[in-house]
């Protein structure tokens, strides 16, 4: 048998949260990185335990993550779903992730909604996941391991609506500022392949998913989104994002 984590984590919050869960698993954990198309296709076996982790974008699974999950065959492997959000809301993300996992023949044993720093409005959920989150996630992960070993296959009830809410489309396309040295790292690491090496200044509107990978990874801190637009969004979401939310655990 093997342990694995399938992740879509453009800026690292989903990865850090996933590691709080898989860090207590007793063996090496293989990683399938859905931001890298070369990581797919993959297949698992019934005896495996897999964490499937995505961020919530507009209360939904990022469409690129959903597309890439379709290249993975679960073959009845057990899975834990993890949705990570920026302290606003995750709405239909877990419901959609469950449907996607089941379409790929995974058996859902448990699910988690957890909070990480908001990757666009970084003042919200700053420092999350923190030590308190880590402790709760680690304890829950032990309970998941026990369920997995016991052979109990009951599926948890999860929140969310079908049909899912309409996905929002953000027009926040990061651009390169004066500090750009044209190293091309942003183009090489863009999950959506939206940045062309011949034109690093911007990203293709039709491909960019506003995931903020290029902003987070630029070694010069030279990529930015429009400040006026983020200020408006920050104000609009202030109430929803400001009160600390806690991880929700479903087993
Ligand atoms: C395009 C986009 C849409 C987002 N939508 C939401 C949302 O609807 N609710 C929320 O609480 N956080 C939202 N967030 C914040 C992310 O879910 C959160 O920061 C997550 O940790 C990002 O994962 P990553 O660090 O692995 O990239 C959004 C972030 C982006 C980039």
Structure explained in plain terms:
The protein is an alpha/beta fold. It has 2 domains: 3-163 and 245-250, Flavodoxin domain (Rossmann fold, 3-Layer(aba) Sandwich); 175-224, 2-Layer Sandwich (Alpha-Beta Plaits), CATH 3.30.70. It is built from 7 helices and 10 strands. It has helices at 13-22, 63-69, 93-103, 131-150, 185-189, 213-217, 227-242; strands spanning 3-7, 29-33, 42-43, 49-55, 72-73, 78-85, 107-115, 175-176, 223-224, 248-250. Strands 2-1-4-6-7-10 form a 6-stranded mixed sheet, with helices on both faces. Helix 1 links the parallel strand 1 (3-7) and strand 2 (29-33). The radius of gyration is 18 Å and the shape is globular. The chain starts with a strand and ends with a strand. The chain binds flavin mononucleotide. Residues 9-14, 55-59, 84-89, 116-120, 170, 210-212 line the site of flavin mononucleotide.
Concise summary:
Helix content is 29%, strand content 18%. It is of the alpha/beta class and 251 residues long.
CATH class of the largest domain: Alpha Beta
CATH superfamily grouping of the largest domain: Flavodoxin domain
- Given as residue ranges, the uncertain stretches (5+ residues, pLDDT < 50) are none
CATH fold topology of the largest domain: Rossmann fold
Bound small molecules, by name, code or SMILES, are: flavin mononucleotide
Strand proportion, as a percent range, falls in 15-25%
| Structural class designation | alpha/beta
The major beta sheet can be summarized as: 6 strands, mixed
Please report the number of helical segments. 7
- Strand arrangement in the largest pleated sheet: 2-1-4-6-7-10
Please state the second-level CATH architecture of the largest domain: 3-Layer(aba) Sandwich
Give the H and E element order: EHEEEHEEHEHEHHEHE
Q: How many distinct beta strands?
A: 10
The termini sit apart by 22 Å
Q: What general outline do the C-alpha atoms trace? A: globular
Structural domain tally: 2
Radius of gyration: 18 Å
- Average of per-residue pLDDT values: 96
What percent of the residues sit in helical stretches (DSSP H or I)? 25-40%
């Amino acid at each position: 048998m093997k342990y694995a984590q399938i992740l879509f984590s453009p800026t690292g919050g989903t990865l850090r949260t996933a590691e709080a869960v898989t860090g207590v698993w007793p063996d090496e954990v293989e990683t399938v990185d859905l931001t890298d198309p070369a990581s797919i296709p993959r297949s698992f076996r019934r005896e495996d335990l897999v964490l499937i982790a995505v961020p919530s974008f507009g209360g939904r699974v990022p469409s690129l993550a959903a597309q890439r999950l379709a290249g993975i065959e679960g073959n009845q492997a057990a899975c834990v779903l993890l949705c990570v959000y920026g302290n606003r809301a995750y709405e239909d993300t877990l419901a959609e992730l469950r449907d996607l996992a089941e379409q790929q023949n995974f058996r859902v044993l448990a699910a988690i909604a957890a909070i990480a720093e908001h990757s666009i409005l970084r003042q919200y959920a700053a420092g999350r996941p923190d030590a308190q989150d880590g402790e709760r996630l680690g304890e829950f992960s032990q309970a998941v391991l026990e369920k997995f070993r016991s052979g109990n296959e009951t599926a948890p009830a999860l929140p969310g609506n079908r049909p899912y809410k309409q996905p929002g489309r953000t027009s926040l396309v990061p651009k390169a500022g004066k500090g750009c040295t044209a190293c091309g790292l942003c183009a090489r690491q863009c999950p959506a392949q939206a940045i062309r090496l011949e034109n690093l200044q911007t990203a293709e509107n039709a491909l960019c998913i506003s995931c903020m990978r290029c902003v987070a990874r630029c070694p010069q801190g030279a990529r930015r989104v429009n400040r006026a637009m983020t200020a408006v969004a920050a104000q609009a979401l202030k109430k929803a994002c400001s009160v600390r939310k806690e991880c929700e655990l479903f087993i």
